[in-house]
Design brief:
Layout lengths: L1 E6 L3 E10 L1 H9 L1 H7 L4 E12 L3 H17 L4 E5 L5 H12 L5 E5 L2 H7 L1
Parallel strand pairs: 2-3, 3-4, 4-5
Antiparallel strand pairs: 1-2
Length: about 120
């Protein structure tokens, strides 16, 4: 999996390509550019629409979201917009609400680029 990070005044965009694997997402979460970029931003846009496939299990997804929740303790009041075109969107939305429900982050799951771009 490859990812690219771009930063504007208010938004950090992370675009993923290729085969999605848990270890790659863990490395991305530890990337200094990612860690520094989310500080002080209003929106974090994670675009998974170019993923060719996923090796993530439901347990991987839950664990990665819990890892992301640690970010919410450092980067307050962020709007996390996730664009996915694979998987069970209802189950993902429920999991996002459970994990991030008591954090300062607002999480929105989108299934189309147009829907996501309206939020940015």
């Amino acid at each position: 999996m490859k990812y690219s990070i771009s930063v504007s005044d208010t938004c950090v965009t992370v675009v993923f390509e290729g085969q999605l694997r848990a270890i790659d997402l863990i490395f991305m979460n530890q990337d200094p550019l990612y860690r520094e970029s989310i500080a002080g931003k209003k929106v974090l846009f994670m675009d998974f629409s170019a993923i060719s496939g996923s090796e993530l299990t439901p347990a991987d997804i839950q664990g990665l979201m819990l890892l992301g929740k640690l970010d919410s303790q450092k980067a307050k009041n962020l709007h996390l917009v996730i664009l996915i075109t694979f998987g069970e969107t209802d189950a993902m939305q429920n999991l996002c609400e459970q994990i991030f429900g008591d954090s300062s982050w607002q999480v929105t799951l989108c299934t189309s680029r147009g829907e996501a771009l309206k939020l940015l």
